[in-house]
Design goal:
It is a single chain. The protein has one domain. It contains four helices and no strands. The radius of gyration is 25 Å and the shape is elongated. Helix 1 crosses helix 2. By secondary structure, it is mostly helical.
């Protein structure tokens, strides 16, 4: 569905100081946008950046190599690991 035909249904209301509103109006006018459009586009850009920062992992070459080696070599289960897994199963609760 294109954005031109996509119906806007949800609302977000906020209260702000008069001085903050004036700053937003001024910034929006510089970009030729409405205040609502300016706030929405700014907030969405920041939201995407925040999501990216929390969902993307960057590794240097050495750490990347160690990570992929760990993925390709399954862990050998020794007595300590087996005990730790059993303890986890005993303590953990499912949501």
């Amino acid at each position: 569905m294109s954005s031109a035909t996509d119906t806007k249904k949800d609302r977000i209301n906020l209260r702000l100081k008069h001085s903050a509103k004036k700053v937003l109006e001024r910034a929006a006018s510089f970009e030729g946008k409405t205040v609502s459009n300016f706030i929405l586009s700014s907030a969405l850009a920041r939201a995407e950046k925040t999501i990216h920062e929390h969902e993307v992992m960057r590794l240097n070459a050495q750490d990347s190599d160690a990570f992929f080696k760990a993925l390709t070599k399954p862990a050998r289960i020794n007595k300590k690991l087996a005990a730790a897994l059993a303890e986890h199963d005993r303590r953990a609760t499912s949501k």
